[in-house]
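Dear all,

This email documents one entry for the complex benchmark we are building for the journal club exercise. For each entry we list the sequence lines for every component of the assembly. Then comes the predicted three-dimensional structure of the complex as a token string, followed by one or two observations. Please use this as the template for your own entries, and keep the labels exactly as they appear.
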Amino acid sequence: MASFMLSGTTASKISSQLTHLRHQMGAPAIGMVLTLVVVCDESNQYDAVRAATEAAREHPSRILVAIARDPAEAIRLDAELRIGESTPGEVILLRLYGELTRHAESVVSPLLLPDTPVVAWWPGECTDRPAKDPIGLLTQRRITDARSADDPVKAIVGRARGYHPGDTDLAWTRLTPWRSLLAAAFDQPVGEVERGVVEAVPDNPSAPLLAAWLSDRLGAPVEVAESGGPGLTAVRLSTADGEIKVTRSDARLATLTRPGQPDRRVALARRPTSELLAEELRRLDPDELYETAIRHLARGVTAPQAARR
Amino acid sequence: MTDGETQMTSPEEPKAPGDEEETRPAHADEVATVAAAAASAASTEAAMLANPLRDPRDKRLPRVAGPCVLVLFGVTGDLAKRKLLPAIYDLGNRGLLPPGFSLVGFARRDWAAQDFAQLTHDAIKEHARTPFREEVWKQLREGIHFVPGEFSDDGAFDALAMTLKEIDETRGTGGNYAFYLSVPPKFFPLVVEQLKRTNLANAPEGAWRRVVIEKPFGHDLQSAQELNTITSAVFPESSVFRIDHYLGKETVQNIMALRFANNLFEPIWNRGYVDHVQITMAEDIGIGGRAGYYDGIGAARDVIQNHLLQLLALVAMDDPTSFEANSLRREKEKVLKAVRLPHDLGLGTARGRYTSGWQGGEPVVGYLDEDGIPADSITETYAAIKLEIANRRWAGVPFYLRTGKRLGRRVTEVAVVFQRAPHLPFSTDDTEILGQNALVIRVQPDEGITVRFGSKVPGTAMEVRDVSMDFAYGESFMESSPEAYERLLLDVLIGDPPLFPHQREVDLSWQILDPIEHFWASQGRPEGYPAGTWGPASADAMMARDGRVWRRL
């Protein structure tokens, strides 16, 4: 492993230092498949870098971490380069001071891998319109996380307004195992669904999203109800034949119940951020299903459902 | 584009529920193509198409098998412990097993379900690729059953049939059973006959029954066909899944992506540019405890007939019309049919047997000194053959296949070696050390692709020499990437057959190998090669006669 600190530097100095480090390590050819730009602050950079590094095991990447520091200081760029540290790619931490905090793209842009996809990830707060963000403009795909917003439900409901193809939110990614299990339950013929309920702790942005997806696909009203958690605890769908439900009380093992069939237990654990990120990086084309779900959600806010909230 | 435009051009404007119904048929074509590509079994496919929660655009949802039971014969075997049981757990851990999935073990042990569960638990702890998680184990444990008995014992199979019926009721598995015969082929007739007698081989309406068999698929054409007669008398060909675990490997599937998703390689993938192809599977281990199986079988039957000829087929075939099983198998069959043996088998093949020597820093014994090998054995542990493919694409391009035990190191690869540049505008001195361009598909252990080409040596002189460029994606980095058996087991449970060889491919492979084996049988003892080296001198001589050399691996 090689690590290198540069203080008061520029993008081109970072670039040549990277080349130098790579040559020093005897690995002149690079097999990286994308650039991941992580936009965060000092408080969440450790976890974000960790998750991104783990995801890079599946998708060798150049990880650029843009960390905004004190905007009142003099303009300065500090960089920390890590190569070969438990990752097949490269990690570059960029610390921006002064007015530079508002021009991160000027540092990120020259450091992108040429002609390969660029993905941006905001592990913390982000703008309402990621695609309009100066960093977002450089990317094919933008990953936000409604859960880290002050009001997560409001954040996810608002995503439709700023949506641009290529946007996605980890609140949606977290649903994949649930959606997969529900879809598997529907692989056997099921009668028409009349209505449904998604139960979760208050402020869980994934719950209304799941309800919107179900409602859109099944053509039936699906409500969100509060429960004691942890996380999502149940999905109940009423059909003419009875109730199909998935319940999970411990965030690990779920029970699938179908009318006329024995209960079945299925592992349905929460996944670490690295796995969510790895899932996101697997597909770089716009996620149309996510778009449909957030638009459905946005339409639903004027309905009684939201009024209840 | 401004944000307002995004909104306006968005196809997802608010719609009445009725509109929603009308938009769905618009994707019908897409649904059909995707389904055809996946080529799932008819019953599951129909249900999935009707499933309102599935959408071909929803690429996040994994392919999950429908409710089913996997019946494993030979649970105490090495393969079950090291590969199959861990693979089942890993599938569960990735959320790919259906709710209610059940696993039934059948063996000649006086065991109860908890003993089998213990064995499974230990096997998972030791060999699973994904981390052990209690909730996944709980899910799996609930569905574990065990039926003790001999294969000849009618009572035991009646008990198995009863158990399966019970599982259908308690777990909702709907009569869908896959029978995995992880037992020596000599037991196949017994087991298959019992499945027929107990009516387990016959699927009721709306359910499926599948049988999975492992290599060896016979030891020559005749025995392979006899074996097939046994299974096909009871199971239709579409329900027989022959596992060649090589085809479950990411890199092997990547051969198809590399060839047919790119425009860079296919134009030169022919006799106009390719000089020859080398397909190698080298092992550093000896025969270990497999003397009983290995002696009399040898390297060619063990490896060339299945793995190497399958690799050859994938590398040499024309593009299939789709990745649906029939189209893919048809192309593979075509190319296997076009394979021609050398006129003089003495010159176009080589075989060897390891003698004592040093392998990777350890002294090792020769083949004849291994436990259980008779002194008059003529079994080869190294085999090399030269094949040609008589079609427009490959005429005159030799395919060299080699495999051996106790070679220098463990490596499997396909190397496509290109012709030299037709004219070199450099002096011969400058290009003295320039070799041929090559594209190497590394199958194991370090999966990836290597491209070798000439490059100028830095300096004031124009000196050109070979450099290698490596690519490795995912597989080699991620410990938890799917193992070949995971992929193949999932395909069995889903009923997705493209990665399983058809009986016709098995027959064709034996037709290629039988004459060689016949010739070798008359040649007495194989030539010795010291363990830890790269095979007998005759194999090098075979290449030298063509003016070529084996790649040094």
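Observations: Residues 1-43 of chain B have pLDDT under 50 and may be disordered. The longest helix of chain B spans residues 298-316.
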